[in-house]
Structures are given as C-alpha cells and as structure tokens.
Amino acid sequence: MIIFLPLTFIYKQPWAIMNNEFPFSNFLKLADNNNDNDANPSLLAKKSLNNNDLSQDVFESKKDEKGNLEDIKLIEYEILSNIKASLTSQKYHAYIENCLSLKSIELEKINFSASTPFIKNIIQTHYLNILKDSVVSVLGKEYKINILVTSTNESLSSNNKNILKSINDSCNIIPQISSAKNASFSLDLTPSHSDLVTQAESELIKHMDSDQLNIAIDPKKTFSSFVVGHSNNIAYASAQAVSKKPGTLGEYPSLYIYSNSGLGKTHLLHAIANEIKHNYPKLRICIMTGREFMNEFVNSFQSNTNLLFRKKYSEEVDILMIDDIHEFKGKKGTQDEFFHVFNELHGKGKQLVFTSDQHPTEIDGISERIVTRLQWGLCVDIQQPDFETRIAILKSKAQELDLFLSDDIFSLIASSIKKNIRALEGSLIHLHAFSSFMKTELDIELVKQALRLNNMAEPEDITLDRVAKVIAKHYRFTIVDLKSKTRKQELVKTRHIAMYLSQKMTKSTLSEIGSFYGGRDHSTVINAIKNIEDRLKIDVELSRDIVTIENNL
Predict the structure, then answer these.
(1) Cα–Cα distance measured from residue 439 to residue 469, given in angstroms and rounded to the nearest whole number
(2) d(C-alpha 370, C-alpha 380), whole Å
C-alpha cells in the first residue's frame, strides 16, 4: 500500500520546505528553473518559494528526471484506483482505463489528459464529481479540474479497445472470421431467465460485500438515513453528541461502538464524519478500517518511514475514526504503534471514534493497555433491532429504492430476517433488482420465491400467556409472581415491562391485560406502560432487555 500525506499540509506550511522540516523531495522532486534552460512543459507546478522570485507561478521539471515521472505516476495510480472503486468494471474499462492520465499539478489546478474528445465529454458530463472526490482523497485539497485532449493517430482508440474488451467480457460474442476482410461478430444479447435471476442476486452480493480497504466518507450514511429504535437509540444519541461537539469541545472525546456485524455501527461512523465535515469543515478527518491502519504501519516499517507515519497522525489528524478495531488482535507491533497514536491524539484533545464486534474486554489478543484506553471514553452497544424497527428500516429502504411493497410483504421479511440490518436491506435490493429485470410487480408469492422463503412457517400469534412466560424466564420470576399483589421494587418493574410488551405485541385490550395480571384495572396498565416508555429514554440496560425479550418472542 502506498502512503500519501495530503499536499495541503505542504501548501499551507511552505516554511517547512525551506527549513527542511518536511522531506518534500521524497514526494515531489522539483527542478531549479534557473538551471533548466532546456526544460520541457512542466509535469508538476507550485508557487516559487524563493523570496527573490515570488512572481513565478510554477517550478519547471525536466522530463528526463525519473523521480518526477514516478511521482506523477504514483499520484495518478491512486486517483484512478479511487475512481475504479466507485464505478462498475465495464464503465471503468470503457471510459477511464488507458483513457485518462494525470499530466501536471499546479497551485489551484490539476491537469488531466483524455484520449479523445468523446472521453473528455463523458467524464465532464457523468464522472467529474467522482474525479474531484478522488483528487481530494489523494491530495488532501480541492483543485480545479482541467481535462485536455491528447491527439492520436491510432485507428482504434484506447477507449474503443476498452469498450470492445468490456463487451467481450459481458456478452456472448461468437467471432466468425474467415479473413480480415469479412470479419464479423454475432451477438446474442437476449438474457435468459437464469441470467436475469443471477443478475438480481449479484446486486444482493454487491450490497452484502461491505469489506473495503480504502474508506472514503460515504455521503449516503447520515443521521437522517439511520432508523432509530430501542436497540440503537443510545448509540445514535452518543454519535450525534460527538458530531456536534468533537474532541475536548464535547463530553465524549473517545467513543467506542460495538455490535454484531450488520447492525449499523459503520453507518453511525460515517454519519459522525459527515456531520463533523458539515459543522467543522476545517477539521481533518481520517476514517479507515483496522486492517488499513495495520497495513499502513507494516508498509512504513518495511520502507523505514515510521517517523512519517507517526507524524501523519500526530500533526495532521483532528478526528481519527477506525472501523473494526478488533482487527488488531494478535498484532503486537500494530498495537504498540496504535498505543502511541492514541496517547498523542488523546493528549491533544482530538476526537477518537472506534467500532468493533465486541466490548474491549471481550476481544482476545489485545494488550491490557489498549483495552484500558479503549474504555477511557464512552462504550455503547447496538442490539438486534426489534420487529417495529425492522419494519421501519424496510420502509425507509423501499422509499430510497422507489420500491412499492404491501404491508404483508414488509411483515413477512421483518419476521424472516431478524439479526442483520445489512441482510434486511439486502433483501429489498434483491427484490428491486428482481422486479426490474423480470419486468413484473411483486406479490407475496413472488417475494417468497425470490428470497427463498417458500418453506418458512407463518409467524406464531403472540399471546398474553406467551409474553408472561418469556418475561418470567428472563427475569427469573414465576407467572404467579407477576400476577400477585407483591409490591417489591424489582417485581413491580418486571410486571410493568410485562404489561408494556403485552400491549405492544398482542392484540389484547388494556382491560384484558389488567385482568390477566392479577385483576388490575386499565388505568394501572396505562401507568405501567407510560413508566416503561419514560425509562426507555434514559435506561440503556432496560432498552437492551426489551430488545432481547422481543427477539425471544
């Protein structure tokens, strides 16, 4: 993995170059204009740092200087790699690969070369924002994008070659060539039913495969697109508090969110980053996976650039966000380096946010001093979503996809997929693709077929007796205790929870619930329900218990 430090760091501190505080030459090797009489057009440009010649706008670089060409190629590689991650392989092969290249970087402008006017038009019309984001991601600041056209005499442009390759990859092409003169192709572009089903399923696979090494802030993952329920309300509120007042400005300079896979912790991580980016645009955000941090450290160790690695985090990061920090387990060298980074940033009052699949104390292979530091701040968890939250998530995703489904279908899916929000949303992505490719409206039988729910039993009706049994077992009381007149504090709390869930999850009236629990009147039930609703707003343990009981029901 190639490590780049943002160039804005260099631009904002030119004295660092003059005083040799920063090894600028390791990244951009610039030649002296005064000694370069036969220089070719510049490959890289910067404002002159010579006090005697401040009017010069660029440094000229000799084309035969191998270092400059390598710098350009390295930056180009990183930019194109980011673009590749944002496009389908067909689009990337058709319009970017061998069609777009980096030529030079100036003060406020970056120059690219397109292979044809057609390619230039396609990029400016459809992919300019992706190109801008990639430049910012690699170079650390925004540039004006300038795209030039490179003239070519090739009979078949690189773009046409890529399109042909893309077609060959995705279509059934049968060449029937007896000679070059009468070469022709027979295209069978009509997909079979099996092909359409495979395409629909591939959309689901793409959604479920969320492992990405190079994370950029996902603009779609915001607080407004996060569905809040009892299972995640504490984590949501904590994340919002951090985004409004990061670092020493707020109450939680260190936040640790943990949950099983697919329950929304990564969504909250990006939501925090998006909100801070909006509220505090000058703060420098570093968001990455635990594996990416580890790879970056290993590369710096192998290339003997450990000091640059530490300097990047100690001097250039205001917000450090690491997803899946449990990736550090068993990696002593990475843990040691993270220990120093954590201490440095925490001591400076920077904001730290981490996610994991376990509480710090439950991660095997993590040193005690790392566990201690991960617990310095606020640790919150996300539980499995309850039925109502799952329905809300499905409806929100359906609205985003412009997919119409009946309430029966939402209930069917929410009853079938209980433990993973990513799988829950993935089911709708699958149905959306299925409906689009098959050109058909979705009914409950088609949904069962598409999601393979044919053999699933209908959900069992929840009764007052069933609710009482599950709650009694969870809190280690008996049903007789719940129905008794005993006023012990713990038992009263449990009885109130039983009444609350009975009203929420059964079709019973308030009078029927009161009668079931020892002949109490409906006003007692109302007070019990209100008491639990109020406590759920502030009691993390109670929220966790409610979610667990609902899932057991």
Answers:
(1) 47
(2) 17
Q: What is the pLDDT of residues 353-377, one digit of tens each?
A: 999 998 999 888 899 999 999 999 8
Q: Which amino acid is at 160?
A: N
Q: What is the pLDDT of residue 66?
A: 53
Sign of CA pseudo-dihedral 291, 296, 297, 299:
positive
| Model pLDDT, residue 261 | 82
- The whole-number average pLDDT for the span 119-132 is 86
Say which residues have a Cβ less than 8 Å from residue 229's Cβ, sequence separation at least 6.
385, 386, 388, 389, 392
Pseudo-torsion of CA 388, 394, 396, 400, nearest 10°? 180
Residues forming beta bridges with residue 287, ordered by sequence position? 321
Instruction: Supply 144's token pair.
Output: 């004006």
CB atoms within 10 A of CB 415: 17
* Distance from C-alpha of 127 to C-alpha of 311, rounded to nearest angstrom: 34
481, 491 contact by CB (below 8 A): yes
Tokens of 217: 């802030």
250-296: pLDDT as tens digits = 889 999 999 988 888 999 999 999 999 999 999 999 999 999 999 99
DSSP-assigned states of every residue in 497-518: HHHHHHHHHS---HHHHHHHTT
Burial (CB count within 10 angstroms: exposed 0-12, middle 13-18, buried 19+), residue 302:
exposed
Q: CA dihedral defined by 49, 318, 80, 39, rounded to 10 degrees?
A: 10
Question: Is the pTM higher than 0.85?
Answer: no
Q: Smallest Cα–Cα separation from 265: which of 239, 288, 302?
A: 239
Does the pLDDT value for residue 488 go beyond 70?
A: yes
b (16+ CB within 10 A) / e for 1-16: eeeebbbebbeeeeee
Angle at 232 between CA 227 and CA 237, to 5 degrees: 90
Distance CA 500, CA 513 (A): 9
How many C-beta neighbours within 10 Å does residue 244 have?
A: 14
Main-chain phi, psi angles of 105, to 5 degrees = -125, 125
At 27-66, the pLDDT tens digits run 444 434 444 444 443 333 333 333 333 333 333 334 444 5
Q: Is 112 helix (H, G, I), strand (E, B) or coil?
A: strand
106, two tokens:
């100036």
Top-confidence residue, 116 or 223: 223
Distance separating alpha carbons of residues 422 and 74, to the nearest angstrom: 35
Longest dimension (CA), the chain: 100
> Scanning the structure block, which residue is given the tokens 């699933």?
456
**By mean pLDDT, which of 236-245, 420-429, 524-533 is the weakest?**
420-429
Cβ atoms of 127 and 114 closer than 8 Å: no
In this structure, which long-range contacts are made by residues 95-98, counting pairs with CB atoms below 8 Å and at least 24 apart in sequence?
95/119, 95/122, 95/123, 95/127, 95/159, 95/162, 96/123, 96/127, 97/158, 97/162, 98/158, 98/159, 98/161, 98/162
